Amino acid sequence: MATLGGLEIWIDSEGEQAERTAEVTSHPVESGIDVSDNIRRSATVLNLTGEIVGTDAVDKLQRIEAWKNAGTVVAYHGVYSYSRMWITKFNTAQSSKIVGGYKFDITLQEARIAKSAYTSSSTRKSTGTQQKKTNSASQKVYYTTKAGDTLWALLQAPNAPYKKYGFTPNDVMKNNPKAFSRKMDARTMQNGVKIWIGNRK
Protein backbone atom coordinates (compact mmCIF):
# COMPACT_ATOMS: atom_id res chain seq x y z
CA MET A 1 0.00 0.00 0.00
CA ALA A 2 1.19 3.51 -0.85
CA THR A 3 -0.33 6.97 -1.13
CA LEU A 4 -0.17 9.46 -3.98
CA GLY A 5 -1.53 12.90 -3.16
CA GLY A 6 -3.30 11.28 -0.20
CA LEU A 7 -4.98 8.60 -2.37
CA GLU A 8 -4.34 4.96 -1.46
CA ILE A 9 -2.89 2.86 -4.31
CA TRP A 10 -1.50 -0.68 -4.45
CA ILE A 11 2.10 -1.03 -5.63
CA ASP A 12 3.44 -4.29 -7.09
CA SER A 13 6.08 -6.10 -5.04
CA GLU A 14 8.83 -4.70 -7.28
CA GLY A 15 6.82 -1.77 -8.55
CA GLU A 16 8.97 1.13 -7.31
CA GLN A 17 12.07 2.02 -9.29
CA ALA A 18 13.99 5.24 -8.59
CA GLU A 19 16.30 6.78 -11.20
CA ARG A 20 19.00 9.09 -9.82
CA THR A 21 21.28 10.57 -12.46
CA ALA A 22 23.67 13.50 -12.84
CA GLU A 23 24.54 15.75 -15.79
CA VAL A 24 28.14 16.50 -16.72
CA THR A 25 28.97 19.70 -18.60
CA SER A 26 31.66 19.12 -21.24
CA HIS A 27 33.49 21.28 -23.76
CA PRO A 28 35.23 20.09 -26.93
CA VAL A 29 38.99 20.50 -27.30
CA GLU A 30 41.30 20.24 -30.31
CA SER A 31 42.38 16.70 -29.48
CA GLY A 32 41.43 13.99 -27.05
CA ILE A 33 38.21 13.62 -25.12
CA ASP A 34 36.04 16.57 -24.14
CA VAL A 35 36.98 18.54 -21.02
CA SER A 36 34.40 18.26 -18.21
CA ASP A 37 34.18 21.06 -15.68
CA ASN A 38 30.89 20.63 -13.84
CA ILE A 39 28.51 17.98 -12.58
CA ARG A 40 25.06 18.48 -11.07
CA ARG A 41 22.33 16.20 -9.80
CA SER A 42 19.31 15.69 -12.02
CA ALA A 43 15.76 15.47 -10.71
CA THR A 44 14.93 12.05 -9.26
CA VAL A 45 12.47 10.05 -11.40
CA LEU A 46 10.27 7.40 -9.78
CA ASN A 47 8.56 4.70 -11.88
CA LEU A 48 5.59 2.95 -10.26
CA THR A 49 3.45 -0.03 -11.31
CA GLY A 50 0.46 -1.34 -9.41
CA GLU A 51 -3.31 -1.29 -9.10
CA ILE A 52 -6.10 1.19 -8.36
CA VAL A 53 -8.92 -0.70 -6.67
CA GLY A 54 -12.02 -0.09 -4.60
CA THR A 55 -15.44 1.46 -5.12
CA ASP A 56 -13.77 4.83 -5.70
CA ALA A 57 -11.31 3.54 -8.33
CA VAL A 58 -12.80 5.66 -11.12
CA ASP A 59 -12.64 8.78 -8.95
CA LYS A 60 -8.99 8.08 -8.10
CA LEU A 61 -8.16 7.59 -11.77
CA GLN A 62 -9.80 10.89 -12.72
CA ARG A 63 -8.07 12.81 -9.92
CA ILE A 64 -4.62 11.47 -10.85
CA GLU A 65 -5.23 12.31 -14.49
CA ALA A 66 -6.33 15.84 -13.52
CA TRP A 67 -3.18 16.32 -11.41
CA LYS A 68 -1.02 15.22 -14.34
CA ASN A 69 -2.74 17.56 -16.80
CA ALA A 70 -2.64 20.54 -14.41
CA GLY A 71 0.98 20.04 -13.36
CA THR A 72 -0.06 19.69 -9.72
CA VAL A 73 2.75 18.95 -7.26
CA VAL A 74 1.85 15.91 -5.13
CA ALA A 75 3.43 13.90 -2.34
CA TYR A 76 4.22 10.19 -2.66
CA HIS A 77 4.76 7.80 0.26
CA GLY A 78 5.65 4.16 -0.26
CA VAL A 79 9.01 2.41 0.00
CA TYR A 80 10.35 5.79 -1.11
CA SER A 81 8.89 9.08 0.12
CA TYR A 82 8.94 12.39 -1.74
CA SER A 83 7.00 15.52 -0.78
CA ARG A 84 7.12 17.34 -4.15
CA MET A 85 6.59 15.33 -7.33
CA TRP A 86 5.08 15.95 -10.77
CA ILE A 87 3.15 13.21 -12.55
CA THR A 88 4.72 13.03 -16.02
CA LYS A 89 3.13 9.77 -17.21
CA PHE A 90 -0.02 7.91 -16.21
CA ASN A 91 -1.11 4.80 -18.13
CA THR A 92 -3.93 2.45 -17.11
CA ALA A 93 -5.34 -0.86 -18.32
CA GLN A 94 -8.32 -2.93 -17.25
CA SER A 95 -7.76 -6.55 -16.32
CA SER A 96 -10.19 -9.43 -15.85
CA LYS A 97 -8.30 -10.21 -12.64
CA ILE A 98 -9.22 -6.83 -11.16
CA VAL A 99 -12.94 -6.26 -10.71
CA GLY A 100 -13.81 -2.56 -10.85
CA GLY A 101 -10.17 -1.52 -10.84
CA TYR A 102 -7.19 -0.78 -13.08
CA LYS A 103 -3.58 -1.76 -13.59
CA PHE A 104 -1.38 1.33 -13.92
CA ASP A 105 2.10 2.59 -14.48
CA ILE A 106 3.02 6.08 -13.33
CA THR A 107 6.18 8.16 -13.71
CA LEU A 108 6.87 10.82 -11.09
CA GLN A 109 9.56 13.48 -11.35
CA GLU A 110 10.99 15.49 -8.48
CA ALA A 111 9.67 19.06 -8.66
CA ARG A 112 11.71 22.17 -8.01
CA ILE A 113 9.88 25.37 -8.88
CA ALA A 114 11.63 28.70 -9.33
CA LYS A 115 10.24 31.63 -7.36
CA SER A 116 8.96 34.53 -9.42
CA ALA A 117 11.06 37.69 -9.28
CA TYR A 118 7.98 39.77 -10.09
CA THR A 119 6.59 42.03 -7.35
CA SER A 120 3.17 43.57 -7.81
CA SER A 121 2.83 47.34 -7.50
CA SER A 122 0.58 46.93 -4.46
CA THR A 123 3.25 45.04 -2.50
CA ARG A 124 6.30 46.95 -3.74
CA LYS A 125 7.63 49.22 -1.00
CA SER A 126 8.41 52.82 -1.83
CA THR A 127 12.04 53.73 -1.35
CA GLY A 128 11.57 57.44 -2.00
CA THR A 129 13.37 59.39 -4.65
CA GLN A 130 16.21 57.43 -6.16
CA GLN A 131 19.15 58.80 -8.08
CA LYS A 132 19.66 57.40 -11.55
CA LYS A 133 22.86 55.51 -12.05
CA THR A 134 25.22 57.12 -14.49
CA ASN A 135 27.31 55.18 -16.96
CA SER A 136 30.84 55.51 -15.69
CA ALA A 137 34.01 53.46 -15.53
CA SER A 138 33.34 52.82 -11.84
CA GLN A 139 29.91 51.24 -12.37
CA LYS A 140 30.30 47.54 -11.64
CA VAL A 141 28.69 44.89 -13.85
CA TYR A 142 27.53 41.65 -12.21
CA TYR A 143 26.56 38.24 -13.55
CA THR A 144 24.98 35.21 -11.86
CA THR A 145 26.69 31.99 -12.94
CA LYS A 146 24.83 28.96 -14.23
CA ALA A 147 25.63 25.42 -15.31
CA GLY A 148 27.82 25.28 -18.41
CA ASP A 149 29.39 28.73 -17.95
CA THR A 150 33.12 29.21 -18.45
CA LEU A 151 35.16 32.37 -18.05
CA TRP A 152 36.46 31.92 -21.59
CA ALA A 153 32.92 31.89 -23.03
CA LEU A 154 31.89 34.89 -20.92
CA LEU A 155 34.99 37.05 -21.45
CA GLN A 156 37.23 35.91 -24.30
CA ALA A 157 35.23 34.07 -26.98
CA PRO A 158 34.65 36.01 -30.25
CA ASN A 159 31.07 36.79 -29.21
CA ALA A 160 31.67 36.85 -25.45
CA PRO A 161 28.86 38.93 -23.88
CA TYR A 162 31.05 40.50 -21.17
CA LYS A 163 34.22 41.04 -23.20
CA LYS A 164 33.54 44.77 -23.55
CA TYR A 165 33.74 45.38 -19.80
CA GLY A 166 37.51 44.87 -19.69
CA PHE A 167 38.05 42.06 -17.17
CA THR A 168 40.27 39.06 -17.84
CA PRO A 169 39.57 35.65 -16.28
CA ASN A 170 42.32 36.39 -13.73
CA ASP A 171 40.59 39.67 -12.81
CA VAL A 172 37.32 37.80 -12.19
CA MET A 173 39.01 35.13 -10.07
CA LYS A 174 40.91 37.73 -8.00
CA ASN A 175 37.82 39.86 -7.41
CA ASN A 176 35.46 36.93 -6.67
CA PRO A 177 37.50 34.36 -4.71
CA LYS A 178 34.44 32.83 -3.05
CA ALA A 179 32.93 31.94 -6.43
CA PHE A 180 35.60 29.29 -7.06
CA SER A 181 36.12 26.05 -5.15
CA ARG A 182 39.87 26.28 -5.66
CA LYS A 183 41.79 29.56 -5.64
CA MET A 184 42.54 30.90 -9.14
CA ASP A 185 41.18 27.74 -10.83
CA ALA A 186 38.60 28.78 -13.45
CA ARG A 187 37.40 25.19 -13.81
CA THR A 188 35.95 25.28 -10.27
CA MET A 189 33.54 28.18 -10.82
CA GLN A 190 30.36 27.47 -8.84
CA ASN A 191 26.78 27.76 -10.09
CA GLY A 192 24.29 30.33 -8.85
CA VAL A 193 26.92 32.79 -7.63
CA LYS A 194 26.77 36.54 -8.32
CA ILE A 195 30.19 37.65 -9.59
CA TRP A 196 31.70 41.02 -10.46
CA ILE A 197 32.56 40.52 -14.12
CA GLY A 198 33.62 44.01 -15.27
CA ASN A 199 32.97 47.75 -15.24
CA ARG A 200 30.52 49.57 -17.43
CA LYS A 201 32.20 52.20 -19.62
TrEMBL record:
Coiled coil: none annotated. Residues 119-138 are annotated as: Disordered. Pfam families: Dit_like (PF21821). Residues 16-120 form the Dit-like phage tail protein N-terminal domain. This is Dit-like phage tail protein N-terminal domain-containing protein.
